[in-house]
Give the backbone structure.
Amino acid sequence: MNNELPDPGCGHSLDELEEYLRTGQSAAEQHYLRCPECQAGLAGLRSLQRLSGQLAAADTEQAGSADEPWLQSILGNLRLEMRSGRSIPLSSEYPEDAFFETEGSLLALIRRIGDDVDGATIGKCRLHGDITTPGADVMIEVNVTAFFGYPLPAMIESLRSRIAAMISTHSELNLTSIDVTVTDVHEHFSPAPKGAVNE
Amino acid sequence: MTVPDRPRLNLDDAADSFLVERASDGDVSSFESLARRYGPLMRGYARRLTGSTADADDAVQETLLQAWNQLGKLQDGSAVKPWLMRICGRKSIDLIRKRKNTVNLDDVEPFDHGPGPERAVEQDTQMRSLVEALKRLPLEQRQCWVLKEMGGQSYEDIAKTMDTTTDSVRGRLSRARTTLMKEMEDWR
């Protein structure tokens, strides 16, 4: 290796070596494997890469943990800006009054009720249909992660009936169907749900 | 019969794609789990790019706000980490542009929480030398280098972030690499 320049003195440039390292292939591979200058160049590039990784890791460590005030303050600022979804109209006795509930509040209720069904954790959850127009058909789509060992048909039936009851209590939506899809089964044996898992 | 403890999926243990799915439906606690998971990574990266803790915090906040609003556009939830890092890199560079060289970029100021982890960097002579060598690089070379080596961004992403061409990015990275390699010879 030439002392003045980091380029190997054998006609191959540092950029070529870097590309070889990055892509793992080069027409000159056989040369790189035999040429001492190129080997030294590759070793140098590797240690630069290693150092960069270490510096990134040190930067992350120095940035502090996620439960420190800096992140709490950022999240606090964001909560004010996080969207609450569409506005769902509610009827009122007096036509000059306009009442609404937010889509976000209904989705949060669906999620809370769904998470309370044994063995279920709600994933994706959407209201389909024009919920901003009173009386329009609305369909609810819910994805569920189930814990292993819970009978799925009973879980789904329970989800359907509880969500339907909640929607009729807390909104005036014209609910036409609730589509429940079990997207994942999660293994979780401790603590074991008694009577549901054979031990 | 006693009521069994129901197993609950702890969001902090959940897969990125699961959190993205829930967060893009408006679930704030899933989004906050993502923020906790990648917040420190983004903050350290943004500070390396901007040289300032206050700017780093601003960059992280703007990154999270944009992420929250555009999460629905992210096709593959498991790619949320590089996606966040791309946004964070862009927000950091934008912040530097806005204040137009008014801040001294020669020094990356330390985080304000005592003499703890800074030592890890100080103690490693080679890493210290790398930090010094980075400081001496021209600003745009240094930015390209940090975006690529520490942010894991592609040439195309860096070109977009820096508002330039991939050829120019290639050239800057090549010059930065040559300088750093040359200096590294002296560290041995």
